[in-house]
Amino acid sequence: MTKTSVAWLGICLLTTWCAATSDAVPPNVLLIVSDDQGYNDLGVLGNGIITPNLDRLAKEGTRLTNFYVAWPACTPSRAALLTGRYPQRNGIYDMIRNEAPDYGHKYTHEEYQVSFERIGGMDLRETLLPEVLGTAGYKSGIFGKWDLGTLKRYLPTSRGFDDFYGFVNTGVDYYTHERYGVPSMYRNLTPTTKDKGTYCTELFEREALRFLDEHAGTAPFFLYLPFNAPHGSSALDPKIRSSVQAPEKYKEMYPPVENEFRVRDRYRYAAPATVVTQEARTRDYRAAVTCMDESIGKIIQSIESKGLLDNTIVVFFSDNGGGGGSDNAPLHGKKGDTWEGGIRVPCLVRWPAGNVPAGGVNDAFLTSLEIVPSLASVSGAELSSQNKLDGFDWWPTLRDGQPSPRTEMFWKRKDSIGARVDNWKWVVVKGQSKGLFNLDTDIGETNDLSQQHPKILDRLKKRYHAWLSEMDDAEPRGPFRDF
């Protein structure tokens, strides 16, 4: 072969390699977040709940057993997963909500306009995940629960999303789409009551499928599906308020319940009140999860039919621990707690093209704070240098089994605390220390070792207070900080 031929061959190979590199297709992203789903509430775990599509994700992807969210209830958890920053750093470290509705109050329009649920929102200096992915050309849609502010400047399409249909506060009646009498559904920046009467899980499915038909294959997409299932209904009627609404079709998939209702002498309002029995609530909760699972299956099928599923990163987890009707076994506690049952949640990750193991079970210490940097690292997106992130790229841990860089995590809800350093956990409930636990041997937090290991407890307390000082010294964010 002549020198000219060798040179020409080299040019051809270089050209081919450059073309292949430049034509590399960034992964699509489907991020599914359920609302108040229990740690054990996956069919694959064998507790009797029917979730064939989530089970498929577990079979074709990896199940994370040691995965945490950043707060034990709705709003701060969602703010953290979309910013990659602790709630105490991004400013949403408590609920954006009104208290009066929990006592049966129906707001007038004028009352609601000046309520905190209406005026509070995510600080505008925060950079959210769709804005990050937008730097790499992604089209972003959100269909479901927003919960980070209801004014136009706070709504999803003002914060990087291209398309939004859903409700804007912490919970709704599944059929009326009202939160304690206040209509809460929006399309982009505009309130709407057009779909009143339709079960909202079906609406979020409908909108997600429309988004995929419009954008999948034309540009990389970020589809965020924060369902409100299986959150309890936010209705005024105690018969509805005391359970989770679900279509009869899905209730009938579970064993019949002998007694649907009972009378309670004490209730949050309207006592005595007729409420559902615990047996009925558990059935209703499971039916709502099964309905959501069916919608997830249709969305996955749509992506698959377009030939895009294997290069779509699918991530599923619950926004916090399970509430009424859920199964958090073997964890102690529930939604709202800094016990494991309030903050450790089910999580599934599927991405064959990214070499995430199929049928894998990964017990590495990981959290929702890892979502933003991990998606940025594989999408070609640019992270803002303005806001310090509290997460890291998790792909080496998921793909290659490398140890997780995370060694500690802290939670604070009013005067309740959770502090995990390595495999040790310190828990404070309403200002009272509840003990020190070794999660390696005691995931259920049953054996307090604070007396046997005072030095370890002291180390955790020091790390917690150092973290708290860092959060207090961070550039302040609204809506709660005084600045």
From TrEMBL:
Domain Sulfatase N-terminal: residue ranges: 27-380
InterPro entries registered for this protein in UniProt: Alkaline_phosphatase_core_sf, Sulfatase, Sulfatase_N
Keyword match Hydrolase: yes
Domain of life: Bacteria
Enzyme class: hydrolase
Recorded GO MF terms: arylsulfatase activity
Signal peptide: 1-19
EC number: 3.1.6.1
Keywords from the UniProt entry: Hydrolase, Signal
PANTHER family tied to this protein: ARYLSULFATASE FAMILY MEMBER, ENDO-4-O-SULFATASE
Family: Belongs to the sulfatase family.
Name of this chain's protein: Arylsulfatase
